[in-house]
Amino acid sequence: MKGKFITFEGGEGVGKTTQLAMIRAYLEAQGVDAVFLREPGGNAISEKIRDIILDVDNAGMTGMCEAMLYSASRAQLVEAVIKPALQSGKLVVCDRFIDSTFAYQGVARGLGADQVDILNRLACGNVMPDLTVFLDLPPKLAFARKGGADAGDRLEQEGESFHRRVYDGYLQACELYPHRIARVDCSGETRATHQKIIDILRQRGIV
Strand, helix or coil at 123? Predict the structure, then answer.
């Protein structure tokens, strides 16, 4: 693979959308050819799978069904978009990837790391992030910042204990993959968090 692959992770309301928009503007100003994606989604088929996953009418969905839908969406995204972009030398930036499955389904849903690892390997093959930026903000603070859960998002509607387990899952991922995951305290001002991310990208030779 010629290009670089960066993923952004974090719980609901940590500010990923804002930070990704700022990173996009920065990279455009630097003349960096980058592809921005989101998970689940990023292409027509994966976006349809996203609709199923987040639909509040699907409250009875099992943890394994949820994990397999995420993996199906990811498999399509990797083959249809990520691999071609990396092979052409582009920088690929994705909002969520394998660590979300570890935190949400592996830990919070209780499927376990082994089950999630199998699904991720099937979906991704040898395509793994060169760098993962984890926006670190405890769920209670994150939901207070965003003004509560989105009524149209099934996962946001899960209770506080679920989102605390998700956060714990991310902390476990940080311990397991310290060389890949950069933990960024995003409790401060938005511009300060952005600068921390830029510093990391420079240190890693991404920009």
Answer: helix
Of 140, 158, 192, the closest CA to residue 13 belongs to 140
What are phi and psi for residue 125, nearest 5 degrees? Answer: 60, -125
CA distance 141 to 150: 15
Residues 163, 104 contacting (CB under 8 angstroms)? no
Residue 143 pLDDT: 79
**What is the DSSP-derived secondary structure letter of residue 43?**
S
pLDDT in tens, 27-51: 999 999 999 999 999 999 999 999 9
Number of H helices, E strands in the chain: 9, 5
User: Structure pTM?
Assistant: 0.93
Task: Give which of 34, 147, 178, 155 is closest to 100, Cα–Cα.
Answer: 155
